[in-house]
Amino acid sequence: MHATGQVISFKTDAAFPFECLAVATNSELPADIAVREASLVEDRFSARFSAIERTYLYAVISRPARPPLLARYADYVWSELDIQAASEAAVRLIGTHDFRSFCGMLPESGSTERTIRALTVTRSADLIRIEIRADGFLHHMVRTIVGTLLECAMGRRTPDSVARILTAKDRSAAGPTAPPRGLYLAGVRYRDGFDSFAEPPVFARVFAPV
Q1: Which residue among 74, 83, 138, 183 is least packed, with the fewest CB closer than 10 Å?
Q2: Does residue 179 fall inside a structural domain?
Q3: Are 206 and 125 contacting, i.e. CB atoms less than 8 angstroms apart?
């Protein structure tokens, strides 16, 4: 799994020039992690619990030859995919549902009900972009949804099967868990209007707005 819009929060009593925090932190981080920006927030703010919405993206390459240079950053499917079928299945998941069938490990407490606000499947050449935005997610929920949508795209199940999967409330009713290499936490949104969303580099060129 990757992240382009991860948010963290912490408290400190240390005195330092705040405007230098991002640059100073990046000087100590490994090459594959970087801080984009830093902000002062109120004491009660929590990067995790103050979030009202998260956006995940999933990348899939669909073509006969596997893409070695993208092996770490996108899933690969050699067979032809019916994106319309995947999109029809995706629409059936939008809204408030019990997503128990799409949960890898049930939460110790609390409901398995979540609200998906947007779920789209788009394609540009051999690159498929799956975007899912919701108020929260269960363990492996995004990857299981992706695995199910890909099965619909391969013709292994129909879009109509989504209703039966939700009703079953059984993990075995849904598709496989897609591998983590194609998954990106792309954005976290908060009540003050801040959204950390950043398009992953794998999509930036072909899906960037004109």
Answers
A1: 83
A2: yes
A3: yes
Q: pTM for the whole thing?
A: 0.94
Q: How much is the mean pLDDT over the chain? A: 94
Give strand pairing partners of 185. 3, 56
Residue 203 counted as domain residue: no
Structure tokens at 130: 């799956």
Q: How far is CA 60 from CA 27, 66, 83, 191, 193, in A?
A: 33, 11, 12, 32, 30
Task: Give bridge partners of residue 54 from the DSSP assignment.
Answer: 134, 188
Measured between alpha carbons, how far is 138 from 113 in angstroms, rounded to an integer?
9
Backbone angles phi, psi at 111, to 5 degrees: -80, 155
Residues 6+ apart with CB under 8 A from 95: 115, 116
Check pLDDT > 90 for residue 207.
no
Give the helix ranges, DSSP H, for 34-95: 83-91
b/e string for 177-210 if b means 16 or more Cβ within 10 A?
bbeebbbbbbbbbbeeeeebbebbebbeeebeee
The verdict on residue 196 lying in a domain is: no
pLDDT digits (tens, 9 = 90+) for 83-93: 999 999 999 99
Among the listed residues 99, 133, 130, the one whose alpha carbon sits nearest the alpha carbon of residue 118: 133
CB 6 within 8 A of CB 196: yes
| Residue 174 belongs to domain spanning | 51-188
